[in-house]
Structure formats: structure tokens, C-alpha cells
Amino acid sequence: MARTAKKAPSAKNAFEELSRRGPHDVLHGDLALVGLPGIVCTPRSGLGLPAIAFGHGWLQPPRRYLALLRHLASWGFVVAAPATQRGVFASHRMFATDLRTALDVAVGVRLGEGQISVDEKKLGVAGHAMGAGCAVLAAAEDERIRAVATLAAAETRPSALEAAARVRVPGLHLAAGNDLLAPAVANAEPIARAWGGAVQLRTVAKASHLGFTEGRHWTQLVLHGKSEYSTQRATKALLTAYFLSTLVEDRRGEALLSSDIKGTKIDQVHTRGVLTAA
């Protein structure tokens, strides 16, 4: 009897699968032990793994993204989130450098009692708000970075909008539909428009600026929005699908990346190319 080809998951099925915890047990620890304040989450073991450096938003501690970091680790990624530049007058240039240093640490240090190593050809960056803009700056300066994802990206100094033109690898940009601090029209849209590689801009319709963060924090008194489960669930699924595709050529989330899903819509005007391995 002839075998039938296995069909790729539909967008709905891919969303359901990738929004849930992955198959790996997760460890998390303190980056300060290897010289950089912050959080690192990893699978329990694995050699030649992909790694992602994640940048926090303005005034936000990395722990406000811990569920996302652990989620990505459960799908096989080493994720490092520096806890630097958390003051009011944060240096965007220095934070971009810290994101690159986090990747250096992931590549150069055997984590998890020596049972974890990272392949320097499988590196990505991501971030929220200020950290998203700094991720763009880092990618523009570091040829090792193969994929970039931003959440409610905010402009930086030096300019993330100008740096975007120098980034030749794929970029996934998630904008918050109800963002009063970093509206897409002045931030994510011009970044996507200038992007030097394949790019997708997608709007999470009901998301606020802080919807991507977890728990409560004093900054909710001065910044717009609050933690939103639906925003975080969509983010987990989309970032997992995106980094699986771009860093390890795993296509199980392909339908999800090319389709609108409940609560999110692809901006076709600012989207071009296909989000696959660079």
C-alpha cells in the first residue's frame, strides 16, 4: 500500500500546538553567574541548540517575560535576557551591545552542567518596546544573527528605523493594536517598511503596550496597559513558529506564519517575502 504524505498542520492546529508548552523540560538560572545580570532559560540538555537574546521593555524587569522565555526553552531554544539598562535614562546603544554579549555567553559557555551547547549559526534576537528597538540595532551590527522578532517596537537612539535597512535577515514584528506609547504608525510600520530582508508586520488587535508583559509592576501606574493573557498566548505561538522556521528549519508552524489567526492580522502593505531560514 502506498504511503500518503503527512499534511502540514493547519494554521489553527499549529496555533494550538505551538501555544502550548513544548516537549523539553526547562531549566532557568541567573546570567550573572557567567558575568552578565539577567535570566537564562534552557532545555534540560542538548548540543548545537539555537539561541535567542531577549531585550526587556523600558523600566521592565526580565522576569515580566519569564513565561515566554520558558515557553521558547520548552521548544528547544536557549534564551538569555539581560537585566541591564533598566533605569529611566537607559542607553539603547549599550543595551544592544548587551544583547550581543548575551549571545556570546550562550555560544561560549557550556550551560546546564556542561550538557548544553549552542550553535553560533543558529542565533536570533527578540525584544519588547525599547528592547525590540535594541534588538534591531544588535542585528544591524552582528552578522551572526539570523532572525529578529519585535513586540511593540519603539524607536531608539541611535535609530532602529535607520538600522532596519541594514538588517538582511527575516524579521517578524508584532504591533499592539491599542498601543498608546509606541503606536505602529510611528514605530513598527516604518521599521518594517525599511527592513532589508523578508519581513512580516502583524497587529495583535486588542493588545496594549504592556499586554506582552506578565504579572503586575509599578510601571502600570505610568505606562499604558496591563498584562494580557490572549496577547501573550498569541505571542508564544507566533514566536515559536517563527524561530523554529528561521533558526532550525522546522516547518510545523508555516501555516500559522502565513495566515491571520483570531485576534491578529497580517499587515499586507508592510509584509514582503517569506519568513524562512536566512
**β content, as a range?**
15-25%
H-E order:
HEEEHEHEHEHEHEHHE
* Total beta strand runs: 9
Query: What does the average pLDDT come to?
Result: 93
Number of helices: 8
Structural descriptors:
alpha/beta; 8 helices; 278 residues
Describe this structure as you would to a colleague.
With 278 residues, this protein is of the alpha/beta class. It is 29% helix and 22% strand. The chain has eight helices and nine strands. It has helices spanning 11-18, 66-74, 92-108, 130-141, 160-164, 188-194, 229-248, 254-257; strands spanning 26-30, 38-43, 46-55, 78-82, 116-128, 145-151, 171-176, 199-204, 264-266. A nine-stranded mixed sheet has the order 1-2-4-3-5-6-7-8-9, sandwiched between helices. α1 (11-18) packs across α7 (229-248) and α3 (92-108) crosses α4. The protein is globular, with a radius of gyration of 17 Å. The protein starts with 10 loop residues before the first helix and ends in a 12-residue tail after the last strand. Mean pLDDT is 93; it is low at 1-6.
